[in-house]
Amino acid sequence: MTVRGGSALAGIVMAVLLLGACVGPGKPKVDKARVAELNTRLGLEYLQQDRPDLAKVKLDRALEARPRSAAVNWANALLYEKLGDMEKAEAFYRKAVKYDPDSAEAHNNFGAFLCKRGRANEGVKHFDKAAANTVYPTPEYALTNAGVCLLEAGDDVEAEAYFRKALDRNPRHASALYQMALLTYRQKRYLSSRAYRERLSAVMKGPQPKVLWLCVVTERAMDNFNEADRCEKELKTRFPASEEASSLY
Question: What's the CATH code, domain 1-84?
Answer without folding.
Answer: 1.25.40
